[in-house]
Amino acid sequence: MNPLATSRRLRAVLVPRVGSSVSDSGDQVRASRWRRKGREVRAWAPVAQRNFRHGALGVAAATGLAVTGLVTTASASEAPPAKAGATIRGAGSPTAIPGSYVVVFAGNRSAAATRATTQSLATSYDVKVRRQFSSSIKGFSANMTEEQATKMAGDTRVAFVQQNQKVTANQDDPAWGLDRTDQRDLPLDKKFEPSATADNVNVYVIDTGIYAEHKDFGGRASVGTDTVGDGQNGVDCMGHGSHVAGTIAGTNFGLAKGAKIIAVRVLDCNGSGTTESVVGGIDWVTKNAKKPAVANMSLGGGTDAALDAAVKASIDSGVTYAVAAGNDGSDACGSSPADQPDAITVGATDDKDAKATFSNFGKCVDVFGPGVDIESVGITAPDATAKMSGTSMATPHVAGGIALYLSAHPDAKPADVATALVGAATSDKVDDPGTDSPNKLLFVGKVDPAAARR
Predict the structure, then answer these.
(1) Is residue 296 assigned to a domain?
(2) Is 263 helix (H, G, I), strand (E, B) or coil?
(3) By C-alpha distance, which of 447, 406, 404, 403 is closest to 424?
(4) Does residue 204 contact residue 224 with C-beta atoms inside 8 Å?
(5) What residues form DSSP beta bridges with 62?
(6) Which of 117, 150, 167 finishes a domain?
(7) Which carries the bigger pLDDT value, residue 18 or residue 318?
(8) Percent share of the chain, pLDDT over 90
(9) Nearest CA to 311 among 326, 323, 293, 325?
(10) What residues act catalytically?
(11) 51 SS3 class
């Protein structure tokens, strides 16, 4: 995944289903483009198998929100001395967006001080601010030249400047995925018996929005914010976010069947977004999340310092994050936010408990979950369904498991949730999990975590 500090585009990564009439070849191509450095940030829409047609994943334009009411407190002549050797993070990557940057401030500061520093820097370097960040990170996004960005990176008030990057979504009886999560061994028993409904938990789906009118959501879905700026106002026009939300908390397709679903739309109708749009969504969650809370990020790109910093700050605020490992079939440590150690990073398995061929792997992965041919909510009608594959589909299984745990332990901190969930996972069931990967498969059955197999 591309560093979110740079305004890169994020996209959903879908895995086409063999024999499907859906034109998914473009998604596979896009998935193969994810490199360890400077990737497009995409919603790790797992290789998604879908029963509806979707267009090629496109790059979302950065949203331009002007910051108003800022008070200038320093002139260019009063600026602190410059740092030596400052560089732009993510510059020159394949997914970098020309002329668009995210500036992250050094140190901590109040909202008022953040606004003042933003205005001072904007005045000093003659740039127009697009969006202010004050919760998950302290800083702003702006359009500027490479020369302006380099000079700003050298300012002692600035921790770093990252070029905006493209980001995308990850997609590669009860649904088989649900069935697999509540039993230790195969074969599947055609039952899913959750330990709770999680009606006291709030789930934040940072994705392509939501089709709130779908029957499977039972009136529990709403829109929190939309940072894309294309007039959709949180409505899912791609299907990835609704599918993910259905797996987390749908009445039929979900693990946490009573949880409240809040859509945080950061990806456009093609499943693409930017560092700016995604960090904007995380910033909103950090400021507004009602605990107990879990956030799902089935998206990613190349390594992105701004994105990782935003996720870490949000976790530090008390929100537990489940993030997709990615669909490159490579080391998950080369993607953001999969490389964020405080998040729970999820790889994908098939219905035979083998690691999905597209799933990323490695020491940055914490646990595996079902991610191939997953049936969930569709967006063409209130009762529509869709099948998708990818680490984007595995991640919401884990997010649903987190919601179930938080239902019984509402005061648990994210680190405690991660320890409990990974500790309860079934060991040594994943066939060929990949180099340095933990052999842990999600388990949410009615068993005390202390009794879990290790």
Answers:
(1) yes
(2) strand
(3) 447
(4) yes
(5) none
(6) 167
(7) 318
(8) 71
(9) 323
(10) 207, 240, 392
(11) coil
**How does the average pLDDT of the chain come out, rounded?**
84
pLDDT at 106 > cutoff 50? yes
For 120-170, the pLDDT digits (tens) are 999 999 999 999 999 999 999 999 999 999 999 999 999 999 999 988 765
Helix, strand, coil percentages in the chain from 3-state DSSP, rounded to 5: 25, 25, 50
Question: Quick one: average pLDDT of 223-236?
Answer: 97
Taking phi first (over 0 means left), then psi (-120 to 50 degrees means alpha), and beta for anything else, what does residue 219 get?
A: left
Pairing of strands 293-297, 426-427: unpaired
| Cα dihedral 43→44→50→54 (10° resolution) | 40
Render pLDDT for 348-406 as a digit per residue (tens, 0 to 9): 999 999 999 999 999 999 999 999 999 999 999 999 999 999 999 999 999 999 999 99
Report the half-sphere exposure of 101 (CA within 13 A, side-chain side). Answer: 29
3-class state of residue 250 by DSSP: coil
Convert the pLDDT of each residue in 48-94 to its tens digit: 433 333 332 222 223 232 322 333 333 333 455 667 778 999 998 87
The burial of 303, by beta-carbon neighbours within 10 Å (0-12 exposed, 13-18 middle, 19 or more buried), is given as buried
Same domain for 134 and 220, yes or no, is no
Helix ranges (DSSP H) in 182-304: 240-249, 275-288
pLDDT at 238: 97
Same domain, 125 and 233: no
Q: What is the pLDDT of residue 39?
A: 38
Q: Domain span at residue 279?
A: 168-451
Rg (CA), the chain: 21
Query: pTM of this prediction?
Result: 0.75
417/320 Cα distance (integer angstroms): 7
Q: Determine the Cα–Cα distance for residues 436 and 331; give it in Å rounded to an integer.
A: 9
User: What DSSP element (H or E) covers 294?
Assistant: strand 293-297
**Collapsing DSSP states into helix, strand and coil, what is residue 84?**
coil
Contact residues for 274 (Cβ-Cβ < 8 A; gap 6+): 7, 8, 9, 10, 41, 60, 61, 62, 63, 97, 100, 164, 165, 166, 167
Q: Are residues 289 and 367 in the same domain?
A: yes
CA distance 152 to 288: 30
**Amino acid at position 142, single letter:** A
Structural domain contains residue 4: no
And the tokens for 384? 């529509």
DSSP 122-174: HHHHT-EEEEEE-SSSSEEEEE--HHHHHHHHTBTTEEEEEEEEEEEEEE---
What residues does 386 pair with on adjacent strands? 376
Task: Classify residue 427: in a domain, yes or no.
Answer: yes
